[in-house]
Amino acid sequence: MQIHYRHSCRFIILLCIVALGPYVFPAAGLRLEHFVIYGSLLYVMICKMLSHRNTKMDKNIFLLLALSLAVAFWILVVSLQNLSWATPYGVCAGLENFTQPVALIIVISAVVERLDREARLNLLRVAGIAMIVMLCINSLLAILTIFYDTLPFTQYFVVAGYFSVADNTMISLSQLAATMNRFLGVFNQPAESGLAYSIGSLVWVYLATTSKRISSIAWVSLPLLIIGGSLSVSKTFTLGGFPLSMLYWVWSELSLLRIRKSVLVGGMIWGLGTAVVISLLAESWAGLDYFLRFFRRGSYYDGAISLFTGGRFGGAESGVGNLFAKTWNESPIMGFGVSNAQGLDNGYIEFFFYGGIVGLAFHIAILAVILRVAFRGLRTDPERGRLMMALWILIIGASIGAPVFTLNRSSIFLWIILVIVFGVLSKRRTSDMFNSNSQGCL
């Protein structure tokens, strides 16, 4: 068990690292994560076939896997019927977005299933720390981009897909965002960065509120998470992940019927330190004005809904509305299947456009499973239940501006946390020795 636990920790750490890894074959869209995830899937499947041990997948994880498999299979069927409209490469590239969650659920579940509850709790802690470390490193890279040209390094992590009229070259979406002074580090688009930092902030709060004390290193990492998320000027983080993590923090502390002195003192120091760092960066960051538009009354010229949803809703015409109308009028039941011709920036429309009402029903079913597990956790294991509920709220809100379940890089963080917490909650709480407050310090 101890050997298996150490291997589990190493694999989860590796998965968090490769989530922010470089492209190996940019022309084909293959990143380092693809080789690790699908290579691990092959290894797990071979081990399952050769193993004489009969290990059962946790019921809720199996349900999550079954729904994800059903989505991938359904969209494959629809796509094969629309090959004249979508290119074969577009089908493969688009379908991979739906097969990766399936692969992640299988391999992470295989990592978790042989661990007892205490080991699963510690694995969740290891995963959270690994994510925070990776995001802090990315924050430092994003800060460095304010002062220096980091393209010679970041070009290996992003893919060029937009034509620049200025110099007649192909540029990446992250380079396009940089022209607006939105700095993403190794992320390719603001939504990816916003979702990743939102998950990182929620995980930080979970670790902080389930630890005996919060270390000074942890207090340093929190401003880096906030700065990294803010520099992307992503609505997912600014209007979603950041305020949600603060509410989650208050909820967790008040549930203890007291607020710890270390939290009050540390929070004051953190707030002061963050304000000083942001004020220093503001003098060099030209994107501050663009960031502050969310909080200026004069920015609501197209309406608050249009501003806060990036024009997806509330305007006279929107891409999301056009895609919904097209799908509803032409193929409401089956949708159109995957294609590289459409850039979908809404999670609900992604499932509806690709899989019609059937695909959207699967999406809603996945959300229902997560909510069911969250409610169960609130009754039997409040600490994990609150984390799951906060993640569910984040998924619901963030899906307005991004396909959360299939979003590059950041969705890996999401599936890691979901599957491990599902695994923790599947183990009945039998003793106070499993209380996460005994896990040490953050």
Overall description:
- By secondary structure, the chain is mainly α.
- It folds into two domains: 2-295 and 331-428, no CATH class; 296-329, no CATH class.
- The chain is built from 17 helices and four strands.
- It has helices at 2-18, 32-50, 59-80, 88-112, 117-147, 151-154, 173-178, 190-209, 216-231, 235-254, 261-282, 288-292, 304-308, 319-330, 347-380, 382-398, 410-426; strands at 23-25, 30-31, 160-164, 169-172.
- A two-stranded antiparallel sheet has the order 1-2. The protein has a two-stranded antiparallel sheet with strand order 3-4.
- The longest helix is centred in the C-terminal third of the chain and has 34 residues, at 347-380.
- The two termini are 25 Å apart.
- Residues 430-438 have low confidence and may be disordered.
What is the count of DSSP helices, taking H or I runs of 4+ residues? 17
- Strand runs, count: 4
- Pattern of helices and strands: HEEHHHHHEEHHHHHHHHHHH
| CA-atom Rg in angstroms | 22 Å
Measured between the Cα atoms of the first and last residue, the distance is 25 Å
Overall pLDDT confidence: 82
Strands ordered across the widest β-sheet: 1-2
Which structural class fits the helix and strand makeup?
Answer: mainly alpha
Strand content: under 5%
How many discrete domains?
A: 2
The largest sheet is:
2 strands, antiparallel
> Tell me, what's the shape?
globular
> How would you classify the quaternary structure?
single chain
Helical content stands at: 55-70%
Low-confidence stretches: 430-438
